[in-house]
Amino acid sequence: MRAVxxxxxxxxxxxxxxxxxxxxxxxxxxxxxxxxxxxxDMDYIINKIVNLRIFDDSDGKMNLSILDSAGELLLVSxxxxxxxxxxxxxxxxxxxxxxxxxxxxxxxxxxxxxxxxVKKVETGIFQAEMEVSIINxxxxxxxxxSEKQF
Length: 150
What we know:
alpha/beta, D-tyrosyl-trna(Tyr) Deacylase, Chain: A, six-stranded mixed beta sheet, two-stranded antiparallel ribbon, EC 3.1.1.96, D-aminoacyl-tRNA deacylase, Ser(Gly)-tRNA(Ala) hydrolase activity, EC 3.1.1.-, Daa-tRNA_deacyls_DTD
């Protein structure tokens, strides 16, 4: 499982030009799920998301988590995080797995992250064509991988 985490001043996701998720100060998370991801992979990524200290304390030092800072979270599924660009010019997505399996894993991930004491959790729509607006804060962008490849 992979996640791109961005600290944001605000973020919004739209489907068919209609806002379906919107947050203020907090974190935008793009989530990639691969075919052999397990619940342990989910738990690892969720633990990182809610505990990463990427928000500034009163001294301006990145020392607070999303929980400490009362930040909000926007979660957007993005299968292209497993795009393989090593051969040719068009990415391959075989590691992303089947849509049905990924949907189940995404739904479970959403359920689990909503069980965390995050102030507000909004989501996109799985497999929808989405427009994501992000106003970065910092910018602060981090990559997470449950296999710890980076």
